[in-house]
Amino acid sequence: MENQNKLWTAVKYVSLLLGVFVVFFPLYSVFVSAFKTQVEYYQSGMKLPDNWLNFDNFRKVFKVGKLGLGFKNIFIILIVSVAGNIMFGTMVAFALGRFEFKLKKPIMGMYLVAQVIPMITTQVATFSVIKYLGAFNHIYAPILLYLGADVLQIVIYLQFVKNIPKDLDESAMIEGASLFKIYRSIIFPLLAPATATLIILKTISIYNDFYTPYLYMPSQKLRVVSTAIYSFVGPNAAQVNVISAGVLLIFIPTIILFLFLQRYIFAGVTNGAVK
């Protein structure tokens, strides 16, 4: 029995070490490649760079890849899209969580159906709609596609709304508050943990999205961070060292956002999505 416990402990530690390797090796590869020249990258493999002060790749990704323009465009898209998601998500959750009406279950069902349909299967119709609206090759094309409340954020918000006592609503109504006043002054502030969770999830999703900006904003002036890096991928080879430098720079905003909002993630996800 003791030997079995030792064997099981050894298996657990080996699996943990393997997991750490799988997670951190790509990060290590990106980090060391960002400081190498292209020739050094192909000759040295995963070895440490000869010169840690080689910032040519970082300068190139800004000058040639227009990463600065990519940051500007993606931040505009993020601010409008995430703000819209918060507004729609909280309002829908308030309506579904506080009121009883005939279309309540069908509406929730439609959110679920929309979630299980693969996005790629609807792209022909979606592209036609975007082009018909005149939004193709404009910055508001991805904004229109990112706006709206998906089922994950609805579930997260709903669980928080259900935990807010209805006595607060009734007390506010007695004082003469309208439904919008109740939403704005009572419900919305109490959804702060769920909102922080939504900000992180939506920001990472939109920030890392390559397909939507590449398809709907092909103009060089409308680059985002993902398409800016893709400009260093050629038909026969890719400048991996420059791409790695760009990836390191792209990491920075998401890490800062995560550090500021990480304490809300566990509460938001466990009280919403898991339940």
**What is the β-strand count?**
0
What percent strand? Answer: under 5%
| SSE string | HHHHHHHHHHHHHH
Query: Tell me about the biggest sheet?
Result: none
Helical content stands at over 70%
Provide a count of the helices.
14
So, the CATH homologous superfamily? MetI-like
The level 1 CATH classification is Mainly Alpha
Mean pLDDT metric: 84
Q: What's the CATH architecture? A: Orthogonal Bundle
From the 3D structure, determine the CATH topology: MetI-like fold
* Estimated radius of gyration: 24 Å
Decide which structural class fits the backbone.
Answer: mainly alpha
**What number of domains?**
1
Overall geometric form: globular
Topology, element by element:
Blueprint (H helix, E strand, L loop, with lengths): L1 H32 L4 H7 L11 H8 L3 H32 L5 H13 L6 H10 L7 H7 L4 H13 L2 H9 L4 H12 L1 H17 L2 H6 L8 H6 L9 H35 L1
Helix pairs in contact: 1-14, 3-14, 4-7, 4-8, 4-11, 8-14, 11-14
Give the key terms.
275 residues, mainly alpha, MetI-like fold, 14 helices, 75% helix, 0% strand, globular
